[in-house]
Amino acid sequence: MTPPNKPTHREQLIRQLDGAIETWLLDCSYENRSPKTVSFYREFTRPFVDHVGGDIQVADITEAQVRAYFGKVSTEYVKSSRFRALRVFFNWCKRQHYISESPLVLHAPKVRDRVKETFTTGDRDRMLRACAGRCLLRDRAIVWMFWDTGCRLGEMERMEEGHISLDARLVRVIGKGNKERMVSFSLDCRKAVWEYLKAKPESKHLWISNKGGFFSARGMHLMIRRLILKSKIGFRASPHTFRHSLAVRLLSAEVSPLDVQYILGHTSLEMVRRYSRHHQEQRAIEAMRRVQG
Question: Does domain 121-292 have CATH number 1.10.443.10?
Answer without folding.
Answer: yes
